[in-house]
């Protein structure tokens, strides 16, 4: 992903990059959502590099509950001394982030995006943003991020957040590392856990902008595509 300015996108919202790692059959995790380390060493370094280029790393509260991520740059993997760290951003409509979650340890600036239904009090070092009545309205949140010094955000998951971002077309770049293994089954989360597409019109069109082998897997890069008929429509 090329380095660019830290300015928000022309839409007024923060620039949104999405990155995730999936199995070759498109699963984000093992059965029941158990965390899967799908990235090889080369991809882990690529992700750390991406994290250095953004102002915030975003996950949903489901990922906090299941994986308890630190959402920090692992400078040791880059072989560099620690530099500027992105903020941590959790989408948590009801305030379900556990008090002992690593994102609340106070070691890095942290923002929790909640809804009007949240009555939880967070530690004083945590900033909260109310965006939405029932759920977090991601479009509204992304529009407010530049006020918080977040011109560029990296969305890392999980399955429900990725589905919402994809369906609303709220991304500028989407990179996927495909690990060379199948997970299978019925309970391992797919990359997008959200509304199902019953026909082509209901799919999210993408434009492939990059494809490279990385270690044992490969990385594909996409940006939003244009709606329209597929090239071979009508061929069966
Ligand atoms: N392989 C990878 O790259 C990767 C990366 C990250 C996570 N994961 C995996 O993803 C799984 C977790 O995914 P998940 O779907 O359970 O959780 P998630 O997407 O991290 O968080 C979903 C939660 O966010 C809240 N939310 C609030 N507003 C929302 C909105 N507009 N759209 C979507 N969600 C909204 C909802 O909870 P409230 O209503 O309570 O707010 C919702 O249940 C885990 O298995 C984890 O290991 C994989």
Characterise this structure:
It is a single chain. The protein has a nine-stranded mixed β-sheet, sandwiched between helices. It has helices at 41-52, 61-67, 75-78, 138-144, 159-167; strands at residues 15-23, 56-60, 87-91, 110-114, 126-130, 152-157, 173-179, 206-214, 217-224. A hairpin with a 2-residue loop joins strand 8 and strand 9. It is α/β, with parallel strands linked by helices and 236 residues long. The longest helix has 12 residues, at 41-52. The protein has a single domain (15-224), classed as 3-Layer(aba) Sandwich (Dihydrofolate Reductase, subunit A), CATH 3.40.430.10. It has five helices and nine strands. Bound molecules: NADP nicotinamide-adenine-dinucleotide phosphate.
């Amino acid at each position: 992903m090329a380095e660019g300015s830290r300015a928000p996108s022309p839409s007024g919202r923060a620039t949104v990059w999405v990155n995730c790692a999936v199995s070759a059959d498109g699963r984000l995790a093992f059965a029941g959502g158990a965390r899967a380390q799908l990235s090889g060493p080369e991809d882990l370094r690529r992700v750390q590099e991406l994290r250095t280029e953004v102002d915030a790393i975003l996950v949903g509260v489901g990922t906090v509950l299941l994986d308890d991520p630190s959402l920090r740059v692992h400078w040791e993997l880059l072989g560099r001394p620690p530099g500027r760290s992105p903020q941590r951003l959790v989408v948590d409509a009801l305030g379900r982030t556990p008090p002992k979650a690593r994102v609340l340890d106070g070691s890095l600036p942290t923002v929790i995006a909640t809804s009007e239904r949240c009555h939880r009090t967070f530690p004083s070092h945590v900033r909260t943003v109310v965006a939405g009545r029932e759920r977090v309205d991601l479009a509204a949140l992304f529009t407010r991020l530049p006020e918080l010094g977040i011109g560029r955000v990296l969305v890392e998951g999980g399955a429900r957040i990725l589905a919402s971002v994809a369906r609303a077309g709220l991304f500028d770049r989407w990179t996927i590392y495909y690990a060379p293994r199948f997970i299978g089954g019925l309970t391992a989360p797919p990359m997008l856990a959200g509304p199902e597409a019953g026909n082509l019109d209901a799919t999210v069109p993408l434009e492939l902008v990059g494809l490279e082998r990385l270690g044992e897997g490969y990385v594909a890069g996409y940006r939003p595509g244009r709606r329209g008929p597929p090239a071979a429509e009508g061929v069966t």
